[in-house]
Design goal:
Mean pLDDT: 88
Radius of gyration: 24 Å
Oligomer: single chain
Largest sheet: 6 strands, mixed
Number of strands: 6
Number of helices: 9
Low-confidence stretches: 261-265
Shape: elongated
Helix content: 55-70%
Strand order of the largest sheet: 3-4-2-1-5-6
Order of helices and strands: HHHHHEHEEEHEHEH
Structural class: alpha/beta
Distance between the termini: 31 Å
Strand content: 5-15%
């Protein structure tokens, strides 16, 4: 049933999310601890400052650091499990998140004496080295985990069932992309079209009806995502079509060819592997 399938998908997504969080946390903490230990061997002043540090202060700094990491990664949507997000875009977000986390952790570290803890000792060389190494390691770990996630989706885990409105060039382009890249986890169930015969096949995908049948087809096909790729429609017509599915548990996405027809503060834009 739809509820069982969605609960399984939710469980798989939870495991993926936990994997990403653990990967980021371990990469950041292991890098910091190991590089700091390496710097201590060559810096007597830093070693002396660290030796004078109470265990409670060391633990307090680690707690603050990990809180800053989690907060900035969440703020930069690095745990949204977005499909088709480019590696370059994700890497840029990682750099921004780690930079913000480093800055906020330094501010919090300076405030630790106000709460009965010593500030954690560091110098500029330690700071830059750890930041740069953490950026590299987190990006590498995330690339590895994304590869695993893509492999799971190719094997039909964490799948999104897609219905495309529009069987002309924009709709076919979306369908072709999703067929070429099964690792995105999208499975096109069919098209809705006014221009094609119901029951005909387009690149192996059936035309299931007219756009007016959106709500019924969503229910029958257990659709998760509806992508509107219609051209030549007025804003009112597009909004009328969207309203047909407003009571269904689906996510509605609009291809850029018609995106400009809609003006709504609730809209955000994203990409699916370049589209």
């Amino acid at each position: 049933s739809t509820s069982v399938r969605r609960s399984r998908t939710w469980f798989v997504q939870l495991l993926m999310l936990i994997g990403l969080i653990l990967g980021d946390t371990l990469a950041a903490n292991i890098t910091m601890v190991e590089l700091f230990r390496w710097h201590l061997r060559g810096d007597a002043r830093l070693q002396a400052a660290f030796d004078a540090l109470r265990v409670e202060s060391w633990v307090a700094f680690l707690v603050v650091l990990n809180f800053c990491l989690a907060s900035t990664f969440i703020a930069n949507n690095l745990y949204s499990l977005r499909r088709g997000l480019s590696r370059i875009d994700e890497s840029f977000r990682v750099v921004v998140a780690l930079t913000l986390a480093t800055f906020t952790a330094l501010v919090a570290n300076a405030l630790l004496p106000q709460f009965g803890f010593e500030s954690f000792p560091y110098n500029q060389t330690v700071l830059i080295t750890i930041w740069a190494a953490t950026v590299v390691l987190v990006i590498v770990v995330r690339a590895f985990l994304r590869t695993i996630i893509s492999a799971l989706r190719r094997r039909n885990y964490d799948i999104r069932r897609v219905l495309i409105l529009g069987a002309r060039a924009p709709g076919r382009q979306i369908n072709n992309l999703m067929q070429r890249k099964p690792g995105l986890g999208y499975r096109v169930q069919g098209f809705l079209s006014d221009s094609e015969t119901i029951g005909s096949l387009i690149d192996g995908v059936p035309v299931l009806g007219k756009p007016g049948a959106l709500s019924r087809v969503v229910k029958v096909m257990h659709v998760d995502d509806v992508i509107i790729a219609l051209s030549g429609r007025t804003p009112e017509e597009v909004l009328d079509i969207v309203s047909l599915a407003e009571d269904e548990a689906v996510e509605i996405q609009i291809y850029p060819d018609v995106f400009h027809l809609i003006t709504n503060n609730g809209i955000s834009n994203t990409e699916i592997s370049g589209l």
